[in-house]
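To: structure desk
From: M.T.
Subject: fold request, one chain
Message: Could you run this one when you get a chance? Sequence is below, nothing fancy, just the single chain.
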Amino acid sequence: MRRIAMHVCVLVPFAVAMAGCNLPGRPEPGPEVRRPETEMSFDNLYGANCAGCHGANGQGGAAIALENPEYQALIEDATLRDVIAKGEKGTLMPGFSVQAGGELVDAQIDALVKEMRARWRKPNAFGGDVPPPYKATHAGDAGKGQQVYAAACASCHGESAQKPGKDGSILDGSLLALINEQTVRSIVIAGRPDIGQPDWRNHIQGHPLSDDEITNVTAWLMAQKPARPGQPYPGATAGSRP
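Reply: Done. Structure tokens follow.
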């Protein structure tokens, strides 16, 4: 009995000491890693899913500036949500919803839309002017669109892909392969103030572009999209590979 009692006296302090230690593989209490679908912080969601293309603060990225109040006023809530959830066909914009193969649940997409509006949408963004509709209401006439390009775009973007303007060519086949008509239309109407791109009222001095003109120039630009974007490579000869 005395030997058993001695063993108990030794083991009890050991057990108490172990209770205060973290055994190998045992996680410490908090902060636990959250399940991805429970993340509702706009900054975290936007930073992980949007900032890479649209810029850290909604501007300055390769894609359209979400911080632009004119763009936020132009696109309706349901359409903005649809683009985030399902993506934009013919562009690099993927669908971020679980249903489209992404990782965001409906509540997370709702949180993105709600906070984008709260941060970047401003009342009277167009100063009382009525912009053309977000989506084209009819098919464009590419022939007429070439005339619009010459009058409204060529002075900044150049007459052709081989002769780019001071703001770079928008006729480059590799660029056109990454965008669709809606991309062009949205930028022509809302502009991109983060890179000095004017809105539809300021492409031609004293002449805001009409809905028809925007639809036509968009159709013409899309008609310039090459069948094999990126070809030919500089210096490549027939039958050779870059």
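Reply (cont.): Residues 2-19 form the longest helix (18 residues). Let me know if you need anything else for the meeting.
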